[in-house]
């Protein structure tokens, strides 16, 4: 019989912070009655305007999951304004974290084969039960010397049968840009094969120590995924890879989803015959590392130090880290309209437009500002710049028409983009607040006007208010990027 974990906060002792994702803090903790170490994911519901649905769905999925290679939850409950999800503690942390600390050039092929085989087993179970994970990446693959390899983070996962069609497909734009399959970016119908693409990108990430799109901005990654040859595995100065490994990656990164193998088929590939018992391999890697808690501390210290030393460059790295952490979920734009625009306008203009959008959505605040923003009324503020109608994503146009009678059509031309940024610089006190959905954003509009300065406008799920002095700096930066 399954052990019944207590569902009251008083029965747990929160210990160190071991993860801070886009939506939650994760603590090592002690379950007092069992004297057992667990991990607890704490989601501040107020920060998300009490939107319990997404998180309770994730918790439910985690409680129902029953597979050795998927991170399940022991239980979940609401404590004050937080949702707590109690789960097994994975002492090695994520593969992404391990690479950052000790394997900047990626892991050995036999370690990768083991991690990927176990991840595939988890995916096979998910897919056979009608789920797509939608955020497969090294940051969501956790390891532990005793518990092995587990795929985690079901915050983006979807149940295929929920989409209401008999073909078992989805259309929502969810995931993290570098790992997103072309069909997800295009918002055409997609199914579990989207996870196989992300799995292929994850394999490259584990091989090189970073995703194949390391130094590109999110908007460029999306464009490249759609327009260029898929990335592939090549030998480097430091590392030679087997042809079997290269084959596996090539099969996963086929643009036509129907040509990609299923998890079940992939598991039969010769490459996975290399895979060892997880205990041995994971122990080989983890034994050489400091504890997860020490690693989290030293990584944080390192980040702070580098941030001080490298200013601008690090800002970019931090931004990509934020992008990595949070992915882009339920982001509100219509790819068909963008594509239609792209055929009318030249590509550079589409690029400028996408660049602006992504800057708006993924722009990193400096630390102090971010944490203040996180406390702010359940709303994550963005260091953002303007509310010009010219900047509106096509998908938000009609909604904004309701809000602003004199709304104008989207204009992607470069001079207009620059002009819009200029307008924003002229209003140095503008800021965006990122809201969980445009609907909520609209309902929050008046409230913001009362509590946080005047609402200047609405851009998708961003509300523009008049209380951010950072904006002109960022606007200048945006302008520079658009002009380059
Ligand atoms: N059970 C666990 N044991 C050990 N570390 C964990 C555990 N769960 C999560 N973590 C750590 O916390 C980090 C954030 O967790 P998680 O991905 O669940 O949060 P999130 O807010 O959904 O993140 P994301 O930014 O990916 O959306 C993970 O990358 C991992 O390093």
Automatic annotation (TrEMBL):
Q: Which family does it belong to?
A: Belongs to the protein kinase superfamily. STE Ser/Thr protein kinase family. STE20 subfamily.
Single annotated GO MF: ATP binding
In Swiss-Prot or TrEMBL terms, this protein is called: Protein kinase domain-containing protein
Protein's UniProt keywords contain Nucleotide-binding = yes
Give the span(s) annotated as Disordered: 368-405, 464-484
Q: Where is the composition biased (Polar residues)?
A: 379-389
Q: Which residues bind ATP?
A: 41
> Which Pfam families does this UniProt record tie to the protein?
Pkinase
């Amino acid at each position: 019989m399954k052990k019944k974990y207590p569902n009251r906060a008083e029965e747990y002792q929160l210990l160190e912070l071991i993860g801070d994702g886009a939506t939650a803090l994760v603590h090592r903790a002690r379950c007092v009655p069992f004297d057992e170490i667990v991990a607890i994911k704490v989601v501040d519901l107020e920060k998300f305007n009490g939107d319990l649905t997404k998180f309770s769905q994730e918790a439910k999925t985690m409680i129902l999951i029953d597979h050795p290679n998927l991170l399940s939850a022991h239980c979940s409950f609401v404590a004050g304004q937080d949702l707590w999800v109690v789960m097994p503690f994975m002492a090695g942390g994520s593969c992404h974290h391990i690479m950052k600390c000790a394997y900047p050039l990626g892991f050995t092929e036999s370690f990768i084969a083991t991690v990927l085989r176990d991840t595939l087993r988890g995916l096979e179970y998910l897919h056979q039960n009608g789920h797509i994970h939608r955020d497969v990446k090294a940051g969501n693959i956790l390891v532990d010397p005793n518990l092995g390899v587990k795929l985690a983070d079901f915050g983006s996962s979807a149940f295929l049968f929920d989409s209401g069609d008999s073909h078992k497909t989805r259309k929502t734009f969810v995931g993290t840009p570098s790992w997103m399959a072309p069909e997800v970016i295009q918002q055409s119908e997609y199914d579990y094969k989207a996870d196989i693409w992300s799995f292929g990108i994850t394999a490259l990430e584990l091989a090189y120590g970073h995703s194949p799109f390391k130094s590109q901005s999110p908007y460029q990654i999306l464009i490249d995924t759609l327009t260029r040859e898929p990335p592939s595995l090549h030998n480097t100065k430091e590392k030679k890879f087997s042809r079997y490994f290269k084959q596996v990656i090539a099969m996963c990164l086929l643009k036509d989803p129907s040509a990609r193998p299923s998890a079940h088929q992939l598991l039969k590939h010769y490459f996975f015959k290399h895979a060892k018992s997880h205990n041995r391999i994971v122990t080989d890697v983890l034994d050489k590392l400091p504890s997860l808690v020490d690693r989290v501390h030293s990584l944080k210290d390192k980040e702070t130090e580098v941030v001080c030393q490298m200013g601008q460059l690090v800002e970019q790295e931090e931004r990509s880290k934020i992008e990595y952490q949070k992915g882009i979920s339920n982001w509100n734009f219509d790819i068909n309209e963008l594509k239609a625009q792209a055929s009318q306008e030249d590509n550079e203009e589409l690029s400028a437009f996408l660049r602006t959008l992504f800057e708006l959505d993924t722009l990193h605040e400096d630390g102090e500002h971010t944490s203040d923003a996180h406390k702010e009324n359940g709303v994550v503020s963005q260091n953002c710049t303007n509310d010009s109608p010219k900047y509106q994503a096509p998908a938000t146009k009609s909604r904004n028409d309701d809000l602003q009678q004199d709304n104008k059509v989207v204009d992607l031309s470069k001079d207009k983009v620059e002009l819009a940024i200029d307008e924003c610089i002229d209003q140095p006190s503008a800021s965006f607040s990122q809201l969980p959905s445009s609907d909520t954003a609209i309902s929050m509009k008046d409230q913001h006007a009362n509590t946080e300065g005047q609402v200047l406008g609405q851009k998708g799920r961003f509300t523009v208010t008049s209380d951010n002095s950072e904006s002109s700096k960022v606007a200048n930066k945006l302008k520079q990027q658009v002009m380059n």
